[in-house]
Write a structure and sequence with these properties.
Length: about 350
């Protein structure tokens, strides 16, 4: 059946985005998730839910207040969201008017641009150099009176590179008319944060996710922390029920159960040790990679990148070809899991290069 109905002009121009989520019953080193499990205490909390609990609309307020306390903030300074993705979406909805600009260092996480492109604002890219260091000077130079949102993933994906606290401060001060979003999705693997500046800088907003270190990607849980004067507007475009009861129950346990905290600490320490060993193994194989503070690494595979990703899949290991990202031709991103998992990854990579498959 044909229809004369057209979407908004901007929606008509948007590319479709379908992350490769199919057939992932392998070792998942492709989406930077926790590769093992959430804390058993969190799972037990979910399992204790009753059928009657599920009949009620979820109430985010009490758990939002708990999350705020966990971060040393007031309840007005925190919004729980359906993943950081919803957080990005509502920031774009709340702050981007036609003619405004989202300023984006690239390569970076895809969803900033996708949600901005559904508004009538423009997107200004600032390309990182071949070392993928944060393009600080170029970003400062690209700030204009139209800059309304600046999105900085710290650590960044897919590069693993970081932006310093001093750089964030300088950017926030140079663009007082813009919301500066510092996306700390990979905070636990880095250990540095600007969360303590919330409420001190009037235009700083920090995002965190429970999809990575906490191992709760399927529940869709993220948060925004920021001054009340900004979050007040953001709440207007937020669906009141976007964080469901199962997710809220899990989060309450994740933030308050002592075993949940020690499990998180164990997983993060394991990944950091594993990261050191994996990077050394890549060097030994003769592969170039970029310094990373996250639970993944960007590796230069070269012209056989596609073949590499499919050969790894055949060996039961999923990795993410990032060749289509700006400046990333031939580069593949590999999530870092436990040491035992990464030994399997190293063996598969060795196998690929040993068999000469890379030149096939
Ligand atoms: N920010 C960054 C930098 C990411 O890499 C990701 C996940 N790929 C997200 C946000 C999305 O997080 P969530 O699962 O909470 O939507």
């Amino acid at each position: 059946m044909t229809t004369i109905i057209q979407p908004r002009a901007r929606v008509l121009q948007m590319p479709e985005y379908h992350p490769p989520l199919g057939n992932r019953d392998s070792l998942r080193l492709d989406f930077n998730e926790n590769t093992l499990a959430c804390s058993p205490a969190v799972l037990a909390a979910i399992q204790s839910l009753s059928a009657a609990d599920l009949t009620r609309y979820p109430e985010r307020g009490p758990v939002e207040a708990l999350a705020a306390r966990h971060l040393g903030l007031s309840p007005e300074q925190v919004i729980l969201t359906n993943g950081v993705d919803e957080a990005i979406h509502i920031l774009c909805q709340a702050f981007l008017d036609p003619g405004d600009e989202l300023l984006l260092p690239v390569p970076t996480y895809a969803m900033y641009e996708i949600y901005a492109s559904a508004t009538d604002a423009g997107v200004v890219h600032v390309q990182a150099g071949p070392d993928f260091a944060f393009p600080f000077e170029a970003l400062l130079a690209a700030i204009t009176p139209k800059t309304k949102l600046i999105a900085i993933a710290n650590p960044n994906s897919p590069t693993g590179s970081v932006c310093t606290r001093e750089q964030i401060l300088a950017i926030a001060q140079a663009a007082p008319q813009a919301v500066v979003l510092v996306d700390e999705a990979y905070f636990h693997f880095y250990g540095q944060t600007v969360m303590d500046l919330i409420g001190k800088l009037p235009n700083l907003i920090v995002a965190r996710t429970f999809s990575k270190a906490y191992g709760l990607a399927s529940l869709r849980l993220g948060l925004l922390a920021g001054p009340e004067s900004l979050l007040h507007w953001t709440r207007r475009v937020l669906s009141p029920y976007s964080v469901n009861m199962v997710a809220l129950t899990a989060l309450q346990s994740a933030l308050t159960h002592p075993e949940a905290q020690s499990y998180l600490d164990w997983y993060v320490a394991e990944v950091k040790e594993s990261r050191t060993a994996f990077l050394a193994a890549l060097t030994e194989i003769g592969l170039a990679w970029w310094p990373t503070e996250a639970n993944f690494v960007l590796v230069n595979i070269g012209p056989s990148h596609k073949h590499f990703a499919s050969s790894m899949r055949e060996q039961g290991i999923l990795v993410r070809d990032r060749s289509a990202d700006p400046g990333c031709d031939g580069l593949v991103r590999i999530t870092i899991g436990t040491r035992a998992q990464m030994r399997l990854a190293v063996a598969a990579i060795q196998e690929f290069f040993a068999t000469g498959a890379h030149s096939a």
